């Protein structure tokens, strides 16, 4: 055993002292560097709360929306109920600490050491400092500066001044930037008059102004409110009797209309994903969007009027009928309009982007394209509409049915799509395999369909869930000669000094054969001219257009997604719950032709004034030729009025028959996609 000697002990003490001295020196240098970099704190905290708002602009440069302070009220005009609820929800030890949450500091240090992103959990003072002084870039030095400035704030101002500033700074959703505006927006009263349950609900919103918004996510807001009330009771802000009364009290949302729309809400959500909550709500950014204000207004009117008119003809379900619409610029992928509900609710559920309802026969163009590409079919290929049963391993046999329960026998592929024959779509899916169909859909940008859960045979009839925004972007591939543009809602972002932080570059991805996409475009044009969407023409829309209707099983969803050379638009109508849509007189289910088409046509009749539609032939590939054929047999007809046009590669010529005669009658097709 080696005994320590005086020399060894002296050397060890020297090493320790040297290490501590170096550590103190480094800490001192870091401290003075950080102190020199700290922002100036004015004598009045109210000057800090009036920060630069984040501003949103339309595609034409006109202002759309702003996130910024509105009304400042002193603490004496803020209900003690809200003060207590806020402290219980966010910082129960506010009056006992000196601005720093020691446990949160240790957790942050551990995360930094592990190289992970810093998390929230700061005191009210730290939250105020973080969002008033610092950029949204997260790094260890920022956290240290945040701590130092929090200590300075705490030593300069009283707790009441800090709490007052926080209450007037925090964002509650919609246009409510501060407690006074929040009280008026949600309850139609001043901040001084908030009751305990109202105060608890507002304090809960602070945690997530979008997903805890009681206008759009009432159950979420109520759950959070109850949590805040439990914390208030646990911290002694209310007693058992007050807690029981508050939990039993029903919240009455009165509120006032808020400036904004579903497009702006979607942009805010997307911006928050990119830059973080703090930057979007408190960073003074300038966000330039792709929205066309005129088209947005037209879209909102078309959805509101179209849904109301349809609802008036339906059996009552006790629930409000809803609708959604997404409009995309075909040449660029820029989103021009988004409507997520028949009536806008700030921070509400946006059905245009968030709902994945069954698209029904709207999926068939993707299946037919896959058949052209992989099975080497053409629009005049003969397919057999006859009863068929599919044996599926581990499941009961599946027999798809046409809505009319009748079959047309041998017909051309184009005629099958024009009339949305379910059995043909199922046969093609069986030959391709559901896996190949999902892969094709994803190439069209439909990322909501995934493997393996959506790889099922019923996908042939649209059992997969897709959003209107995805549908509009996917259908835009056809008039773009096989080029896919990812939807864009944000064109440019600047900081408060005008420095460009981000810029969107329009970049098309050539994913498909332009000859095949034009053949599909021509088949989808047949859907509008003489197929399930022919109601488009009856409603007065005359410009060149193509598209596809869609109806889910049992008439729970009705769609129409159509396009011109300028715009691709998807319209959906249905209930939020799985209620069926049935018209009273005559008694019939609502399909895409009577549900989605009227909304689409009303919007497009007015939208083409600003976005004129050219003839599709102007962009037809040079090696494509138009023929007129019999829709049943696919043979050439002597006169165009007796047939339908088909687009074919120039090397393929339809057969001619010397025995062709004018048919006495054309078989009546199945014009509904349900089944």
Description:
The strands form 8 sheets. The protein has a 5-stranded mixed β-sheet. The protein is of the alpha+beta class and 675 residues long. The protein is built from 22 helices and 22 strands. The chain starts with 5 loop residues before the first helix and ends in a 26-residue tail after the last strand. A hairpin with a 5-residue loop joins β13 (490-494) and β14. The chain folds into 2 domains: 71-258, Biosynthetic peptidoglycan transglycosylase-like (Penicillin binding protein transpeptidase fold, Orthogonal Bundle), CATH 1.10.3810.10; 302-649, Beta-lactamase, CATH 3.40.710.10.
Q: What layout of secondary structure does this protein have?
A:
Elements: H1 6-37, H2 46-49, E1 54-57, E2 63-67, H3 80-90, H4 102-113, H5 124-133, H6 140-156, H7 159-169, E3 171-173, E4 176-177, H8 179-187, H9 196-205, H10 218-234, H11 240-248, H12 262-275, H13 277-282, E5 286-289, H14 293-311, E6 322-329, E7 335-339, E8 357-358, H15 364-374, E9 382-385, E10 409-412, H16 413-418, H17 422-432, H18 434-443, E11 465-466, H19 468-475, E12 483-484, E13 490-494, E14 500-503, E15 509-510, H20 514-530, H21 535-538, E16 546-551, E17 557-563, E18 567-574, E19 582-583, E20 588-589, H22 592-607, E21 624-629, E22 644-649
Parallel strand pairs: 1-5
Antiparallel strand pairs: 1-2, 3-4, 5-13, 6-7, 6-18, 8-11, 9-10, 12-15, 13-14, 16-17, 17-18, 19-20, 21-22
